[in-house]
Amino acid sequence: MSNRQPLVAANWKMNGSRESVAALLDGFRQGLPADGVDVLVCAPSIYIPLAADELAGSNIGLGAQTVSEYANGAYTGEISADMLKDYGCRYVIIGHSERRHIFAETNETVANKFCHAREQGLEVILCLGERLEEREAGMTEQVLSEQLEAVIARAGIAAFDGAVIAYEPVWAIGTGLTATPEQAQAAHSFIRLQVARHDDRIADELRILYGGSVKADNAAGLFAMADVDGGLIGGASLKVDDFLAICRAAG
Ligand code: PEP
């Protein structure tokens, strides 16, 4: 039986100001449980230097919400893995559904980003998730499998050693609709089994987060499921008390 330490990751998306970033991080630092849960904040890129300063000396990790698939060079507007590392950013979210569906990132782009980030030594949170119409058509497992296998085929299963996956049903993100603990467990267990087909140990040690309208009052039920190892938190991570309550539920 693996002993996976829960992880709660804040995804602030395109929200915040210098003032609110400092206030949120101050609140997180003061209120976080000392142990039992790893906590990480994925800030908008422009606030990463500020967040790095605010988090210095704390055990809260710092992450980005996306990264270029390319190394430094002539890629106007992009931010490289090297640049993130330069500011103490250890984690990056790859393949968030907003990147896939609003910014047209394909499975191939996601796989390239995953590969490049891992090669550059970043810890990756790879997001997978089906849309409502796909769930209603009974295609959830097919979609999850295609999204996952595209990355495994490109990066190799060894690149998942120490990586994190987030199961984020698109219909639950920012909508107030949450997967039931049983729906989340079914998807998480399916993802772990898919990884186990390639490597048992990596599957057993893989942290799989749930994301999609996690709130203070539904977190404990979700985190109690055997294959749910924490959460990726959007809206509720913009409120100190809500985020701290979710971290306590995980710890
Ligand atoms: C997310 O953006 O990853 C997310 C899960 O958002 P929310 O918690 O707001 O649904």
- Average pLDDT metric: 96
By DSSP, the count of extended strands is 8
Strand line-up in the sheet with most strands: 1-2-3-4-5-6-7-8
Tell me the major beta sheet: 8 strands, parallel, barrel
Strand content: 5-15%
Q: Give the fraction of residues assigned to helices.
A: 40-55%
Give the number of helices. 11
Provide an overview of this structure.
The chain has 251 residues and is an alpha/beta fold. Helix 1 (18-31) runs parallel beside helix 11 and helix 7 runs parallel beside helix 8 (181-196). The chain has helices spanning 18-31, 48-55, 81-86, 97-101, 107-119, 132-136, 140-155, 181-196, 200-205, 219-223, 240-250, and strands at 7-11, 38-42, 61-64, 91-94, 123-128, 164-167, 207-211, 230-233. Strands 1-2-3-4-5-6-7-8 form an eight-stranded parallel barrel, surrounded by five helices. The two termini are 18 Å apart. The chain is globular. The structure holds phosphoenolpyruvate (PEP).
Element layout with pairings:
Blueprint: E1 7-11, H1 18-31, E2 38-42, H2 48-55, E3 61-64, H3 81-86, E4 91-94, H4 97-101, H5 107-119, E5 123-128, H6 132-136, H7 140-155, E6 164-167, H8 181-196, H9 200-205, E7 207-211, H10 219-223, E8 230-233, H11 240-250
Parallel strand pairs: 1-2, 1-8, 2-3, 3-4, 4-5, 5-6, 6-7, 7-8
Helix pairs in contact: 1-2, 1-11, 5-7, 7-8
The structure holds phosphoenolpyruvate.
Residues 11, 13, 168, 173-174, 211-214, 232-236 line the site of phosphoenolpyruvate (PEP).
